[in-house]
Amino acid sequence: MIHGHVTAWALALILFIVALILQSGGKTKGAKIVQMILRVLYLVIIATGVGLLFMLTKISVMYILKAVVGLWIIGLFEMILGRAMNKRRTSVFWIQFVIAWALVLYLGFVELPMSIFHVK
Q: What GO terms fall under cellular component here (predicted)?
């Protein structure tokens, strides 16, 4: 389950970058297709994340924080893509994205015992 979750969000990050590149290149139709695929991946990410939470015997506040930050990142993906499509400033969202991404990676790979490196 953990590997599926990591694969889904890694693929989502790649597709997010592809969508941004397509939008900046003026290929709006391709960007919209990639964005729709990305939205399906959001559902996979959320489903596998909820599945991971249900695998725990005791859910700590740190896992809830990681889930909330993960949802925040999904929201930032949508906000950045939407604002980029409308040619509006995205700098505030990029700052939030860097902070949220660093936090979720720290929680997922370092802090929490059910990370990909601590699985028995």
A: plasma membrane
